[in-house]
Amino acid sequence: MKMKVRNVMKKSVIMLVGLILVANLSACQTYTSGDNKCDICGKRATHTIGSEEYCGTHYKKATNWYVKKALDR
Questions:
Q1: C-alpha–C-alpha distance, residues 59 and 45, integer Å
Q2: pLDDT at position 28, please?
Q3: Could you give the CA distance from residue 28 to residue 23 in angstroms, rounded to a whole number?
Q4: Can you spell out the DSSP letters for the chain?
Q5: 20 pLDDT exceeds 90?
Q6: Above 90 in pLDDT, residue 7?
Q7: pLDDT mean across residues, the chain
Q8: Interatomic CA distance for residues 43 and 29, integer angstroms
Q9: What is the pTM for the complete model shown?
Q10: Residue 48: CB partners within 8 Å, gap ≥ 6?
């Protein structure tokens, strides 16, 4: 009886880990430059900085980041 319980537990843990792995892999998205989508969130890009594309929200944050980095030098 103990062996059956252990086998069921092992199979359950393996299945749970597999489901978590699949969920994490499907949640990861990569955004490529030149696709007119924000490189951060995937919404329609309205601004670019170099090869980076941003929506209105992330453009403001990106410009603030670039300015801060330039001032830190």
A1: 9
A2: 55
A3: 9
A4: -HHHHHHHHHHHHHHHHHHHHHHHHHH-----TTSSB-TTT-SBP-EEETTEEE-HHHHHHHHHHHHHHHHH-
A5: no
A6: no
A7: 82
A8: 13
A9: 0.51
A10: 54
Could you give phi then psi for residue 36, rounded to 5 degrees? 60, 30
* Contact assessment for residue 18 and residue 33, using Cβ atoms and an 8 Å cutoff: no
Nearest partner of 52 among 63, 67, 29, judged by Cα: 63
CA–CA separation, 18 and 11 (whole Å): 10
Q: How many CB atoms lie within 10 A of CB 48?
A: 15
Residue type at position 14: I
Better-scored residue on pLDDT, 71 or 18: 71
